[in-house]
User: Fold this.
Amino acid sequence: MKINKDIWNRYLHGQTSASENELIDAWFDYYTKENNTKNKQEEVDEVVSKLDAKILQQLEEPKVRRFNTWYLTAAASILLLVGFFTIYKLDKQDTPVNQDILPPTGANAVIVLEDNSEVELSKIKEGDTLKANGYLISKNTSGEIIYITDQAGSAPIYNTIRTKGAGTANVVLADGSHIWINSKSEIRYPIAFAADQREVRMEGEAYFEIEKDSKRPFYVRSNGQTIAVLGTKFNVNAKTKRTVTSLLEGRVAIGEFSTELGEKQQMKFPIQLQPGQGFNGNAVYNFDNPEQIVDWKDGYFDFSSMTLEEACAKLSEWYDVSFTIEEGLKKRRLFGRISRQKSIKQVLNLIGQVLKINYTIEENRIYIDTIQP
Assistant:
């Protein structure tokens, strides 16, 4: 594909017509197509080489005449303009579109010890034992963090488990109670409980299975809420503006006030929950799908009767991404369960079997809109 030098000259001086501009644009397009990438530089070198030969020929001619600078200008322009289009293309490639996002392969969580040093949970393997300041931390065959200590009766030592985006963790407390910690959450707890009460403080979301002990009530402390527990299974989600407590088994009592670890003042808990009931900071309500509340603990997303907007909020937490959803799609309902071990593309493709959606992934932002007919 060749372009007359007169057109080049006028193009460089901004004197070409619209049709001539289209011709030059087509020339650049030819040199920036993917199927020409391999030989593009050789072809440009060849063009410049021919221009150099003509320049040398002019210099070697004995006849004295005014040197024509068009060739130098054209050669430089070819290199600059082709280089611009090449760099532009590479820059576009550096921002991958629709590159898949995989689920986490490690715990993506840390234990913060009493001296504020941190230990990555993924570095503690099953059966490993970490020696801390007067106690041991280990991981059992179920992947739970457990403590070996004789600290009972002494001043409490607190540890914190903190999960990041796309991370979870679970810990066995000193009394045998179990806590599962969802992504972007944390639990602060003593490695050994006092003789008269048991307690933890939390942010984010966690599921509890608390051992019964009538002599030592168990308190879950969070911002704006304190829960008194005797022995039960429940989920607490403090990620929203108002903490949501959902009771699966047993009995809990709730007070709408914040308390700190170590507090032992008399407290009143006027809100009583029965199994199958939740409290959202405004009212007690009934729920009939407890599996959906703790789906994250069991390793899947339960989207039954959820809106696309609600489902994407769950995906956002796990894959550590953000969503922009077309307004008309936000309230569309979904059904079914999907494993949390699938990639984000696999999840979105499955959602696409229910709703006619199109998605674009740009780094950690996902855009969802309607498939156009």
User: Anything to note?
Assistant: The radius of gyration is 33 Å.
